[in-house]
Every structure is written in C-alpha cells, then in structure tokens.
Design a protein that fits this description.
Keywords: Acyltransferase, Transferase. The protein has 5 helices and 7 strands; from the N terminus they run βαααβββαβαββ. The chain has 174 residues and is an alpha+beta fold. It has a single domain, classed as Aminopeptidase, CATH 3.40.630. Strand 2 and strand 3 form a beta hairpin. It is globular. The mean pLDDT is 95.
C-alpha cells in the first residue's frame, strides 16, 4: 500500500458531466451486486440524474470535490452544511454524504487521505463534529470509519428504490 499525493478541487456546474459519470460508476461498483436490479436502477436514475446533481451543485451548502492523484481523477466526495444535511441539520456539524474512490485506485490509502482533508474542512468551518450515514451491511466501510474515531450515535432508513435499508449514523468530534 503506497500513499498517494492527492490534490482536491471543488466542483462547479461546469463539472456536471464528469460528476454524473463518477457518481454512477462508483455507486454501481460499490453496491449493484447487493441490491435488487429494478430498485437499484430506479435509485441510480433518480439520485445521480443530471437535474438532481445540478441542483445539488448550485446549493451553496452542498460541496462536491474531485480528488486527483497526479492530475488523474481518482475519486470524489460530497459534504453538506446547514439545511443541506440529510438528517441531523445541526449548524455545528458537517455531513459527509459521499466519499468514493474509483476501483482502480483503491488500496492506496486514498480514502484515509480524503477523510483527513474533510476533517480539515470541518475545522476550518469551525464545526464541532462530522457525521455520516453508512449502510449497516457494509462492514468494510464501518471498520474504516471506526478506525478513524467515528462512533455510532443512531440509525436512519435509506431507500434504494422501494427497498428500505438501514444506515448507521456515525459521528466524529473534532
């Protein structure tokens, strides 16, 4: 496992096509095999549509960032502040809604470096904690977050199409 030298760039509406593609590609790679095909396709079409991602990009409280290793796009993340948060809605918190590394770039500690960058954003924004939801049947991700100090503080439903799943809510004090 080598450590990558990463750079980060906040996305704008001009990045919409690339954002749609990386969002779909990474979500499909991570979860398609664990879901009903009809529900999954319905979710992909809705959650990662051009229209929806454009609205999210235009929301000043939702921030997407592309992650690059030597000028190669290797992943992305999305954080939410204020009313853009999907559940907690605490003005002293930042939500990490999405963090994905493309398949060919996994195993290089990129996820850990992205998380450290996000924690730096939390500190710069003078927030008290970072929180996220992670699927209860994703033990690899749960272990990753717990290794970095996150603790479970609740659960909430998450829908993939009509399939109600459960996300654990995890929190990191900063």
């Amino acid at each position: 496992m080598t450590s990558a030298n990463l750079s980060f760039r906040q996305c704008s509406v001009s990045d919409l096509d690339t954002l749609v593609k990386i969002s779909k590609d990474t979500f499909v790679a991570a979860f398609e095999q664990d879901n009903d095909p009809t529900d999954f396709q319905e979710y992909i079409n809705k959650a990662f549509s051009r229209e929806r991602l454009e609205r999210e990009l235009e929301n000043p409280d939702s921030l997407f960032h592309f992650v690059y290793e030597s000028n190669t796009l290797v992943g992305y993340f999305k954080v939410n502040l204020g009313t853009a948060q999907t559940d907690v809605h605490d003005e002293k918190a930042m939500e990490l809604e999405r963090i994905y590394v493309l398949e060919g770039h996994q195993g290089k500690q990129i996820g850990a470096q992205i998380l450290q960058y996000i924690i730096q954003l939390v500190v710069e924004q003078k927030m008290e904690y970072l929180w996220l939801g992670v699927w209860e049947h994703n033990p690899k991700a749960i272990r990753f977050y717990q290794r970095h100090g996150f603790q479970k503080f609740g659960e909430h439903p998450y829908y993939i199409g009509t399939d109600e799943q459960t996300d654990w809510l995890l929190r990191l004090e900063v």
